[in-house]
Amino acid sequence: MSGPEARRLQGVSDNREAAAAVAGEARRALAIFSHELEPQVYDTLEFLEAAKALALSASRARIRILLVDSTRAVREGHRLVELARRLSSFFEIRKPHPDDAGIPETFIIADEKALLHRPLATRWEGQASLHDPLRAREKLKLFEEIWQRSEPDPEMRQLRI
């Protein structure tokens, strides 16, 4: 990843801090492509506060999540999923088309400028930058292509009894 502020990510704590920082940069939109919505990264107070602040800060704020496998998040009661259910006019969680489910990477994009990217979702190594519009737009283009082929995830519906 290019950009003067690019930071190498080596482990869980690097990813947790970088994800919260990228989400904190968002003023209009946040796009997340994740395989399992790793709770060590996305179910943290810092990330949840940044996502909630974005949703409540602007009436047109959008938080879109492409989640390959929602089983763990639903089973374990992921707080980001719960936040998405409560603020459903700002959040949308979709399941990628099966053809896109094999994409090995994971990433978060804030406002076409901040980016966290891990080439392999199964590993913690990656890079993050709070200002890399070129790479952020490149990943957002991929996100948009996957989004267009995706569908709402039936696991994300809240059952009301």
What key attributes describe this structure?
22% strand, 6 helices, 8-stranded mixed sheet, 161 residues, 38% helix, alpha+beta, globular, Endonuclease, Chain A
CATH overall fold name: Endonuclease, Chain A
> Tell me, what's the shape?
globular
Rg, Cα atoms, Å: 14 Å
Question: Could you report the average pLDDT, rounded to the nearest whole number?
Answer: 93
The CATH fourth-level homologous superfamily: Endonuclease Chain A
List unreliable stretches of 5+ residues: none
Give the end-to-end Cα distance, rounded to a whole number of Å: 47 Å
Number of domains: 1
Beta strand %: 15-25%
Total count of strands: 8
The first-level CATH class name: Alpha Beta
The CATH architecture can be given as 2-Layer Sandwich
Note the main sheet. Answer: 8 strands, mixed
What proportion of the residues is helical, as a percent range? 25-40%
The neighbouring-strand order within the major sheet is 1-7-6-5-2-3-4-8
Secondary-structure element string: EHEHHEHHEEEEHE
Continuous helix count: 6
Question: Could you characterize the architecture of this molecule?
Answer:
With 161 residues, this protein is an alpha+beta fold. It has one domain (7-152): Endonuclease, Chain A (2-Layer Sandwich). It has helices spanning 12-25, 39-42, 45-57, 71-75, 79-86, 133-149; strands at residues 7-9, 29-34, 62-67, 91-95, 106-110, 114-118, 126-129, 151-152. An eight-stranded mixed beta sheet has the order 1-7-6-5-2-3-4-8, with helices on both faces. A hairpin with a 7-residue loop joins strand 6 and strand 7 (126-129). The termini are far apart. The mean pLDDT is 93.
